[in-house]
Amino acid sequence: MRQLIIGIGGVTNGGKSTLAMSLHARIPNSCVIAQDTFFKDNSLVPVDSRGFTQYDVIDSLKMDEMMCEVRAWQKDPAAFQDSCRLRSQCPKMSEAAADMYTLIIEGFLIYNYRPLNELIDMKYFLHIPYEICKERRCLRTYNPPDPCGYFDGHVWPMYLKNRNEIEDTVSDLVYLDGTQSREKIFANVYKRIKMEMDKMPGKTYLCVLVLHLNCKKQSKMHVHV
């Protein structure tokens, strides 16, 4: 049985979830674990002197529970996939590909937690400029909603801090420009994943999506490796 763990990290509103779900929809036997489903209860997250809740720190997350999920997948990915709410929509693969399982982990601090970072085989990091990030953040609805000044006073400074931390400690990060079209980002990452799978022993059938950047034509083909 072959396993591949892919990390999709990066800035808030950078396109992490979109990319993760696009990959999940195209890669057979894949599951997604999203870090933002492991936030602690609001009452347990510290608030600073300005009244800003400290969501953008690793202590705001139940990382022990997240690691349990990852370990459960590693132990028995087939059983984990059966119990997972997120299922791949690819056509059923042949028996030759039945032993290939992929876990996609997405989140804003996945590389800042060493036990998790050490398990990830392929690491991607989406980044966008301050102005675009702030604009996208303002267009989204959060519960609880962002207080006045929260982005400039907490979110962006913590992003820079957390990014600087991983740039000093994490190797093999592939940086992705989140201002590019989602189709172009997906095609780039998917190509890299396919190349990595090609290096792994055994045979794999991949459902390959050929994307045209004008988004007007799409075609599928099956590749026998």
Automatic annotation (TrEMBL):
Keyword Magnesium: yes
Family designation: Belongs to the uridine kinase family. NRK subfamily.
GO molecular function, one term: ATP binding
Catalytic activity from the UniProt record: beta-D-ribosylnicotinate + ATP = nicotinate beta-D-ribonucleotide + ADP + H(+); beta-nicotinamide D-riboside + ATP = beta-nicotinamide D-ribonucleotide + ADP + H(+)
Name recorded for this polypeptide: Nicotinamide riboside kinase 1
Record flagged with keyword Cell division: no
UniProt pathway: Cofactor biosynthesis; NAD(+) biosynthesis
Keywords on record: ATP-binding, Kinase, Magnesium, Metal-binding, Nucleotide-binding, Pyridine nucleotide biosynthesis, Transferase
